[in-house]
Amino acid sequence: MPSILALCAFVLMVLGGYGYVNQPIDEPPWPQVIPGFSFSPFQEGQNPLENKLPNKADIQSDLKLLQGKTNAIRTYTVDGVFADIPALADPYGLNVALGAWISPDLKANRREIDRLLEVANTPPYNVVRLIVGNEVLLRKDLPQAQLESYLDEVRAKTDIPVSTAEPWHVWLKHPELAQHVDFIAVHLLPFWEGIALDHAVDFTMETYHKLQATFPGKPIVISEVGWPSQGRTIKQAVASQANQAKFLRRFIHKAEQEGIVFYVMEAFDQPWKAGIEGSVGGHWGVFDAAREQKFEMRSPIIAIPQWKLLATASIVVALLMTVLLLTDAGGLKNSGRAFLMFNAFFASSLIIYVIYDFTLQYYTWASVLVAALLLLGVVGVFVIVLAEAHEWAEAMWYQRRSRLLAVPTQVPSSANQPFVSVHVPAYEEPPAMLIETLNALARLDYPNFEVIVVDNNTEDERTWKPVQNHCAVLGARFRFFHVKPLAGYKAGALNYALERTSPKAEVVAVIDADYKVRPNWLKDLAPQFENPDIAIVQAPQDYRDGQDSLFKALCYAEYKGFFHLGMVTRNERNAIIQHGTMTMVRRSALEAAGKWGVTTITEDTELGLRILEQGHEAVYIDQSYGQGYIPDTFTDYKKQRHRWAYGAMQILREHARPLTGLTPSSLSAGQRYHFYAGWLPWIADGFNLIFTVLAMLWSGLMLYDPVYYNAPPMLISVVPILFFIFKVTKLITLYVGQVKTGFRTALAATLAGLSLSYTIGRATLAGLFIGRKIPFIRTPKMAARIAVLRAMNAARDETLLAATLLALLVLIYLRLGFETRENLAWCLVLFSQSLPFIAAFVVSLISAMPQRVRPVAQEQTRP
Questions:
Q1: Does the N terminus or the C terminus of the chain have fewer Cβ atoms within 10 A?
Q2: Fold for domain 23-282?
């Protein structure tokens, strides 16, 4: 019942939110007829810059549509078919303010002026104004004296009133220009001034009155006035259909009261103008490019007329998401269910609105491709967010852990103690460290075990010989093999050990060469194999040098997230990741699965998946039974994570068919889900790296041509920002709430995790799209400390990327400013994208700090 109530609440929130934002707003009605429209008869797909022009039939169709809606139209050129507009307009009762296009091309100007005069002085005599040039001085196409010469010439050859069209501030800057015109043709477009909608009409009227006071006796004609329906914002001016409708209906009402002559900018959307004014340039029309009226002329204005459809679509998608998220959610508390519902409704609402917003744009084939990729990216982000939200809920708001095994409280009988063969692969390991590992094994409180050490390919006899000698000292149950050559890296060594395992061994256990196990490891965990369905018993990796330095404290905190969160939740659906130390596997299952795999560099995880595909069970004991060493340097830390991520992608490629169900296996839906969802964040790092590169390229294009290459729409910028906030919030919340760390340790884990984003991203892209086998890279233990410069070099690529992103951010601010919300949002995107790279630089510096305990390492964490 609480879940149903929560679901109903979220449905009502969506409906209420859409309804509140889209309340009808009364505005002055649009009159039956207005004085004029700016008229550019280009159809969608036509472009004067490419000489793709309308024909007479196109123009007649547009004029017919405007018949009875306006007294006049304003044109901009008399070149070609545009000279026929007055004759074509006459049958529809339309007068014409005829324009001549004036440019730096003096020969073209001569043709325009001659043709202008010819058309104006030829029947049907419906040309009521002549406008010589459009924003010539604003663009600095000609000296003022040359423009004045043209104006004087035209005035001398006709009785029709003559002017040139310029924005209001150009007229005020060049008042002497008024001596060469019969009226002031002014552009009043408060959107370009960045004026908020609620002040835009007042600004327009005040500016009009200022011109009247400056040029007494000169008629003022507003030759362009309007507001765009889509595009970027400028300061406080927001482009939207609702704002376009509000501005025009308010302005026309005021203009009618004062008897102002004006031409609404413009009759029809002109998508081609995006090439010269950016995306906003194509959306000034009262009618769209398909000649459909954009907004209500007399009824109350609704921001999104289709809001009921969008709300319904959002709810339907959210319900589908909720069903998927709450499948097999019996162990979740009501608060966890509500959290998942919230994420489903939020994600669906944003996705539906993004799709709706895309439908309002005009696209070329290239922009369609870009839009499709962006939309695909947005959907991909939310798939990852929902998967992470699911993990968050199951980690934070669970009622019970049905499969999490408790630590045994009684010592089992000898009948429940299967013979265990402990395998220790080694390569170039410090002999003192490995001897310490073997001594710990010798102290095991368990009667039935053997230890097989396989040193593969170590060159220096002084490294492996002491270990061989020590095994002889420890007794018959310890056997040492030095093998050279031996192919297959760690998997090869483990298979070599398997071939020499005692026939009576029922269980194979593996630890890394640096692990000191606790005496009760086998005693506590080996009896779990009494259950014939269990093939793997896994204990977490743990570390004993987490307080040696601040760097290792960061790493130690970061490791805990996987072993005390991810593994615990995966265990509930029998989907744990087997890792190659502190693992125990039933020998018969291991051999039936084909032994340790040599086709990937993460042979442990790959074997675990093969065993699960055969229908066996794997269990996880959330208690430390052994501790090893953390990588000593940031370089080694990165190499380790690169191997894990690259190997995971190799596994996804090799096991794609059973994981997707194309090949029959015993995997359940929950197991398949966890193997995909568990690696989605790593895949996200890969695609985020691609996004970062594209963001840098786009930022460069913005700086090169800020008009054509606008900042991406707000919604596109908001998504990666929200994703970054979600990711960091999740990490900190789970570390503090579930791993039981202090807040500083949670921040440390977050910093360490972010520092690996670039490494993981590169590894996943290579593993997914290249997929070739790369060498197994051993993680060195007890390595010598490194100098600061060498430590910084470990994050060279990340430092360069961070510097580039921050430099682009500063350049965009200096060149373009934050006058538009899109620019500000895009710079926030660049900043958020730089944070993982900055984290890598910071961690690389920390790795070179002296080995001493820092406060973060002293916080109490879960054992």
A1: N
A2: TIM Barrel (3.20.20)
